[in-house]
Each structure stands twice: as C-alpha cells, then as structure tokens.
Specification:
- By secondary structure, this protein is α+β, with helices and mostly antiparallel strands.
- The chain is 61% helix and 14% strand.
- The chain is built from nine helices and eight strands.
- The chain has helices spanning 2-14, 32-42, 44-63, 116-182, 188-223, 246-256, 258-278, 325-391, 397-431, and strands spanning 27-30, 70-79, 84-87, 93-97, 100-113, 230-233, 284-295, 307-317.
- It has a four-stranded antiparallel beta sheet with strand order 2-5-7-8, with no helix packed on it. It has a two-stranded parallel ribbon with strand order 1-6. A two-stranded antiparallel sheet has the order 3-4.
C-alpha cells in the first residue's frame, strides 16, 4: 500500500509539465554548460555524495570529545528493604539507614593525556579532505556522463536527419521508378527494388527516432530533469585537434586526479588509525570535579536531610593485559595500512595506463574522423556522378540506390567519428584530472599550450 501511494504520486508528477518531485521541466534551447550545471545541481548521485560533507562536519565535531571536558548530571533513588537503627544513650535509638535514599550530582571530567586525542583530531580533518576529494571524483564522473549523453543526443539527431533525408530521396526515387515503368522505361524489378529501398529506410528512421528518444531520456535522467522535458540542444559536437605530449599528461594526472587524492587521504587516515591502536598501550590520565546532593546527608547518614559534598581528583588507568585485544587490533590496522599503500601505488599505475590508452585512443579517433570526412566527400561526389549518369542513361536506378546507401552510411560514420573523438578528449581530460566544471570539450585539454614531454611508444 505504501509503494502504491508513492507510485500514484509519481505518475501524477510525470503528467504535469512543470517543476515537480519528478525533476525540473526543461523546454527551449539547452547549451552543454547548462546541462552540466543542471546535472551538478540536481543529479541524485551527486546529492547523495554531497551529504558526505555533513558527515565529515559531524565527525570533526565528535572528534573533539577526546580533548574537551565532559559534564554529566546524575540522579538516583533507592528503596531499601528495611531501616536500620542503633541504640543511643539513655535507652534512645537513632536511625542509621533510611529506607528511601535520594541523590543527584554533577561530574566534570577533563582528559589530561591519552594517545587518542591527536590522532582523532588529525583523522577528522583528513576525513573532511577525503570527503571533498570523493565528491570531486563523483562530480567529474557525472560531468563526463552528462557530456556523453548530451553529445549522444546530438548524434542521434544527426543520424535521424540523415535517415529522414535518405527516406525522402528514396520515396522520390520510387515515384520516378513507377512513372518510368508506366512509360515502359523501367522494369517491374526497378519498381520493386525502389519499394524495398523505401521500406529499409523507413525501418532505419524508426530505429533512429527510438535511439534519439532513448538518448534524450538518459540525458534528462542525468540532469535530474523531468522525462517529459522538451529541450532543444544547441551545441554541436566539436572537433578540436590538439597534440598532447604523453609525459605532460602523466605528470598532470599524477598531480591532479581525484582518485589519487582520495587514495592518498585514505592512506593517511589509516595511519591515524594505526596511531590510535598504538595509543591503547599508553595510560589514560584525566582530572575530575564532582558536586553531589543527597538525602540522607552524605556527611552523616543518620540525618534525614539533604546535604552536599564535593570531590576532586586525578584518575590514571593503564591496561596491563586485555586478552591480546590491543595486539590483535594493532596487527589489523597495520595490515590495512599496507593494503592502502599497495592500493595507492596501483592507482598510480592505473592512472599512467589510462593516460597511455587515452592518448592513443585520441590519436586513433583523430585519424578516424579525418578519414571519414574524406570518405563523406567521396560518397557525395559518387552519388552526384551516378545521378547525373542516370539522367544520361549511363547508370541504372539500382546504382543510384547503392550510391545513396553508401552516402547514408558514410554520413553516419562521419558523425559517429566526430562523437568518438569528442568523447576521447573528454576521457583524456578526466584521466588527467582536468575535467572541471569550466573545462568543456570545445576547449584545449592543456591550457596555455603543450609543454615538452615524452611520447607514446
């Protein structure tokens, strides 16, 4: 029943074209940087990650408990089974224990020395930095996926337009084939072949339209927008040619990558955990002051009256033997530190490998985009020549259809190559740790020009 009510509410949100619990409704022109900004503000994954800052803030405050004083208020009521009395002078008796006993008090304790204080404070600050680095890594991942989804939607629009243009041309070719057959200038096969061509392009248009809808839905999901949005994507897929030296890319990555920063802070946090485990071998020293009020009077248990007393002192605790708990904990924490050291080195090796792969992929994507640009021009010229030859009787309608198919495929490959090149640049930006909110794919990866460095073997 609970999920049924939630489902009904969500469906109602989806039916309204406005900003609701289902997301921000978008309409009209949408630039790439606007899409990235929306994703950074409304993406559910990032919203969850940012709550880590509050956790870090709470952890910092809680860590001060190791150094700040603690003040406790206590209260107690005790009902005893019987009163006790004692004989006094001249046959009198007086009560030595009352059945009802009350007490309340305040106790202030101040830690003076323990090995946990410094480690706890340092760990809290490191955790805050670790959280910020984790949020940055999540932000970069969402930004890359948003750029990919935006360009995927742009690509799907181009592919749909290419297939729609081909369909219109094929429909005109079918009308021409029918007219030529009625005049006895074309065979039944020519008309049937033209019909098959139209049917094939209609299927491709349907598929391209579906892929476009899927691409826009994925983009809206990443931006936290309503799936009923109707945005018009303004930015085209850029083709930016840039030489990026491998050595400079690696150096930048090792300095800037968020995942390496996260791994570094994780190692430092574990070092503080090792320090905290070692501190269990040190004594705990604390001072205290207490003030209590009790009935019977704490100074004279025979007086059925409220009285008070205070105490002050120093406490020292030094564990002698705890069943090997401290030793076992220290072994575990040191092993975890070693694991994180290995993980940091592995992350550095992974970064170098990703940079090498990203640089090579970018170079391959650049060559592919260049070749497909030339191939597109060749396919256009081939179709023009075949259409001219058809008018002069030198070529057949089937040859025109083949040339049109080739042009459609060449156009699709061209747009796909531009898309692949743009994503290769985005992947390199992220691998180098430079995918910030102001670093979009139409700008150079290394600002200020390339520096001297190594090359990919």
């Amino acid at each position: 029943m609970i999920r049924a009510e939630a489902a009904a509410s969500r469906v109602e949100d989806l039916s309204r074209q406005e900003t609701t619990g289902s997301g921000v409704y978008l309409s009209g022109p949408l630039l790439l940087w606007e899409a990235v900004a929306l994703a950074q503000g409304y993406n559910r994954t990032l919203q969850q990650e940012r709550e880590g800052q509050e956790i870090a803030r709470g952890r910092i405050q809680a860590s001060w408990s190791e150094a700040l004083p603690a003040l406790n208020l206590t209260g107690e009521y005790v009902r005893l089974d019987e009163e006790r009395s004692a004989a006094g002078p001249e046959g009198t008796a007086y009560t030595t224990r009352y059945q009802d006993q009350y007490s309340t008090g305040l106790r202030l304790t101040q830690p003076l020395f323990n090995g946990r204080i410094g480690a706890a404070l340092r760990a809290a600050k490191l955790y805050d930095e670790w959280t910020r680095a984790s949020i940055r890594a999540a932000t970069e991942a969402v930004q890359r996926e948003t750029i990919r989804a935006y360009y995927r939607a742009v690509l799907s629009g181009h592919l749909l337009a290419v297939n729609q243009t081909a369909l219109k041309t094929a429909e005109r070719q079918l009308e021409d084939a029918r007219a030529r057959r009625r005049q006895g200038m074309a065979s039944n096969y020519d008309e049937l072949r033209a019909q098959v061509e139209v049917s094939n392009f209609r299927a491709q248009v349907l598929q391209a339209r579906n892929e476009r809808d899927v691409a826009f839905t994925a983009l809206y999901r990443l931006m936290g927008a309503s799936p009923e949005s109707e945005a018009d994507l303004v930015d085209e897929i850029p083709l930016v040619i840039e030489q990026i030296p491998f050595g400079d890319a690696v150096q930048t990555a090792l300095e800037q990558r968020a995942d390496l920063i996260v791994a570094e802070y994780a190692l430092r946090l574990q070092e503080e955990s090792v320090a905290a485990a070692r501190s269990r071998y040190l004594p705990d020293v604390s001072g205290y002051v207490s003030q209590s009020w009790a009935n019977p009077d704490p100074h004279d248990a025979s007086r059925d009256q409220w009285g008070d007393e205070w105490q002050a002192g120093v406490q020292v605790a030094l564990p002698i033997f705890d069943g090997l708990d401290r030793r076992g904990t220290l072994i575990q924490e040191r092993a975890k530190r070693k694991q994180l050291e290995i993980a940091l080195h592995d992350a550095e090796d992974k970064a170098v490998s990703e940079i090498r792969q990203a640089v090579l992929s970018l170079k391959t994507a650049e060559e592919f985009a260049h070749s497909q640009s030339q191939n597109l021009e060749t396919a256009r010229e081939a179709l023009r020549l075949v259409e001219a030859g058809l008018k002069e009787g030198q070529n057949t309608p089937v040859e025109v259809m083949d040339a049109r198919q080739a042009l459609t495929k060449a156009s699709a490959n061209y747009y796909q190559s531009i898309f692949d090149h743009a994503l290769a640049r985005v992947a390199l930006q992220q691998a180098m740790g430079l995918l910030a909110s102001d670093a979009l794919p139409d700008e150079p990866v290394l600002r200020g020009g390339a520096r001297s460095g190594g090359s990919v073997e």
